[in-house]
Amino acid sequence: MNENGTPSASADAPVNQATADAMTPEDTTPSTEIPPVLDDRDTMIAALQMELESQKDQMLRAMAEAQTIQRRLRTQMEQDRKYAAEPLARELVVALDNFTRSIKAAEAGASAEAILDGVRSIESQIRKALESVGVKKVESVGQVFNPEVHEAIVTHETDEHPDETVLDEIEAGYIIHDRVLRPARVRVSKQPE
């Protein structure tokens, strides 16, 4: 019995049907839910997971930045390759203009000496333009034949020069920095038999 004198429902007392219907399954089962208790390990795990996510984010950002840099460099290299000849082309255009002027002067009846001076000037411009990008003429006449930079077109028997001396140049040869663009075509001495 309770304080009012009415009988109280005990654990052993039968539950009437209306009371039983009103109860939910949660009311009939004892609560097994334990409030979360965080210990030091759980705190450390949570901190490490946050740090891992932060590191992943930083890594993804760094990878994206690296890809952007690679793309920019690739584009820049393509542009540099595409326009690498621009400085040389600028100088050659000037020489081409001078050729055009020389032709017009010749057609207008300029003297042979004036035209020859113009052509020499143009040759000088072209030579300077090529030298500005590392192209140089191979020195041949009087040199010992060198198969790396010379191509022997003709041999000439003579005892006036040492064997395999370049006597004259049929066509000039050129190198760019340390690479042969075109070997010089030359006439080479050969000792008589």
Quick structural summary:
The protein is an alpha+beta fold and 193 residues long. The protein contains 5 helices and 6 strands, in the order H-H-H-H-H-E-E-E-E-E-E. Strands 1-4-5 form a 3-stranded antiparallel beta sheet. Strands 2-6-3 form a 3-stranded mixed beta sheet, with no helix packed on it.
CATH architecture descriptor name of the domain at 137-193: Roll
Order of helices and strands: HHHHHEEEEEE
Beta-strand percent range: 15-25%
Overall residue-averaged pLDDT value: 86
Global geometry:
elongated
Q: Largest beta sheet: what is the strand line-up?
A: 1-4-5
In CATH, the topology of the domain at 137-193 is named Nucleotide Exchange Factor Grpe, Chain A, domain 2
Helix residue percentage: 40-55%
> What distance lies between the first and last C-alpha atoms, to the nearest angstrom?
147 Å
What is the top-level CATH class of the domain at 137-193? Answer: Mainly Beta
Q: How would you sum up the major sheet?
A: 3 strands, antiparallel
Number of strands: 6
Quaternary structure of the protein: single chain
Uncertain regions: pLDDT < 50 for 5+ in a row?
A: 9-13
Which class of secondary structure composition applies to the elements?
A: alpha+beta
Rg, please? 48 Å
Helix segment tally:
5
CATH superfamily of the domain at 137-193: Head domain of nucleotide exchange factor GrpE
